[in-house]
Amino acid sequence: MVPHETDIFSIAVTPNSVISGSGASTLRIHSTTTPDYPIAQSIDGAHKLGCHHVTTAKGGSGQVACSAGFGGEVNVWRRSEAGDWTLDTTLRPSDLIAGNKGGAPGTQEGAPAAAITKTDKTTDAWALALSKNEQYLAYTTHDGRVGVWDLQARAQLLVYSSHNRATSSFAMAVDLSQDGKYTAAGYQSGSVNVFNNDQSKLVYTLPGLAKPVRAVAFSPLGKRLAAGGDAGVISLYDMKHGEPVGNLTTPGSTTSSSAVWVMSLDFSASGEYLLAGYMDGKVRVWNVELGTCVATNGETEMSALWSVKWLPPKSERPGADTESFCAAGADRRLTFYREAGSNPII
């Protein structure tokens, strides 16, 4: 498999592909319908300064993807009937803050990625999450804001945490529940906030983590929220009452070491297992109910993992009746695993 030019910072999955974004300007789409996972499409110049986050709808149809670049912009991509991905809309930092509609590429309100110019960096977009129906995009900005954008109406729907810049904390991670009701954000301060989008308000500030939170993930039914980061612990919360229900800690780990930092989280389609990518290059599979690590994958001296994702179980890929997942990071390659085994597929 041809590696990216730089670290792969983020991956997203659809029923038949894996989309990867890196520090280079190109997005790659790998087909998961054949055993060798070939590159089906390369989108050159997708983000002039590189891409740090890519998202698709978990459990969705796989027709929409969103990516955030180091230039502060968010690009919305749509899959054509022919199967190719094309740019639909570019949202600039000013659009996300002011609620402008953005626009199609080539227009004044939606300039192509190559034309994006830097603005006040505190308004740059960072983390992204897409609702199951592919209509709502949750995003965070460097100044601590958390917003929800309506992709169909091309308008800002909600904005949370518009704090004074001097006191705000950077929201490093975000996720939407599949029904779109809740938005969860993990902050550099170690706090985790959950917002009710129907009521447009903060409903929970969750305890348990005192260091930066780099990943948050809702379970498929939205009953659990997982959060992890520099504390080296994955905290699980009940969403009915906003209470902690357990911690997942790597056996023999020392939380003072950056090796145990949790960089990425993803629930399996059934919600039974939680996939976690770590700074030490390991990817671990946790049984959520038992609170135990059931598999650890990765070479002894593997580079840091920035992103891990389960592949949809009902996709057209080979072995679709088994649990498979993909991991990516500093080694610039995608690694595919099947049935939580210790050996990669490719």
Automatic annotation (TrEMBL):
Record-level GO cellular component terms: nucleus; protein-containing complex
Pfam families: WD40
Keywords noted in UniProt: Repeat, WD repeat
SUPFAM superfamilies for the chain: WD40 repeat-like (SSF50978)
WD repeat copies, ranges: 206-247, 255-296
Name under which the protein is recorded: Superkiller protein 8
